[in-house]
Design a protein that fits this description.
By secondary structure, the protein is α+β, with helices and mostly antiparallel strands. It has two domains: 2-25 and 106-183, Orthogonal Bundle (Topoisomerase I, Chain A, domain 4), CATH 1.10.132; 34-101, Gyrase A, domain 2, CATH 3.30.1360.40. Helices cover 57% and strands 15% of the residues. The protein is built from four helices and six strands. It has a four-stranded antiparallel sheet with strand order 3-4-6-5, covered by helices on one side. Strands 1-2 form a two-stranded antiparallel ribbon. Helix 1 packs parallel to helix 4 and helix 3 packs antiparallel against helix 4. The radius of gyration is 22 Å and the shape is elongated. The termini are far apart. This is Ribosome-recycling factor. One of its GO terms (biological process) is translational termination.
């Protein structure tokens, strides 16, 4: 019973860390990264579809993304979707592929991106803390229902706290790495 509660809390915390990694991957850091376009949805026969499901997205150079659609007819739609996105990127097409040159980030934009990254990291820290709170509530309920002794619950709560601290540290490391990547000129 207690082990299940601990395992469930840890799984939620793992999901929060993975979610943060995905979120931060989509933040532009001055380098071309195919993950930038993961959230760009293209209207493909009336259905919003991610770019990476319609084309091969590659990064042959540090500041260049190349999108090679499997269906050439969708090329203009992909261009429109990229222009509409909040990425601030301008695609150029030659009829077969779309090239996106990633411009250098200004110092002001870098600091804005760092703020966004910190905000996202805090959101995911809150998720980890919520998982801790839920686990502690379940542990207290199991103590109240006489399913576990007070000592067992205390030990389990300490484990939950250690796990929480561990995942918060992981989030902080991920954030520090992303901040360094963003501030890199």
């Amino acid at each position: 019973m207690l082990a299940d509660i601990l395992q469930e809390a840890e799984e939620k915390m793992k999901k929060a860390v993975e979610g943060l990694r995905r979120e931060l991957a989509s933040l532009r850091a001055g380098r071309a990264n195919p993950a930038l376009l993961e959230k760009v949805l293209v209207s493909y026969y009336g259905t919003p579809t991610p770019v990476n499901q319609l084309a091969t997205v590659s990064s042959p150079e540090a500041r260049l993304l190349v999108i090679q659609p499997w269906d050439r007819n969708i090329l203009p739609e992909i261009e429109k979707a990229i222009l509409k996105s909040d990425l601030g990127l301008t695609p150029s097409s030659d009829g077969t592929v779309i090239r996106i040159t990633i411009p250098q980030l200004t110092e002001e934009r870098r600091s804005e991106l760092v703020k966004v990254a910190r905000k996202k990291a805090e959101e995911f820290r809150v998720m980890v803390r919520n998982a801790r709170r839920e686990a502690n509530d379940k542990l207290k309920a199991s103590e109240k229902n006489k399913e576990a002794s007070e000592d067992e619950v205390k030990r389990a709560q300490e484990k939950v706290q250690k796990t929480t601290d561990n995942y918060i540290q992981i989030i902080d490391k991920i954030l520090a790495t992303k901040e360094a990547e963003i501030m890199e000129v």
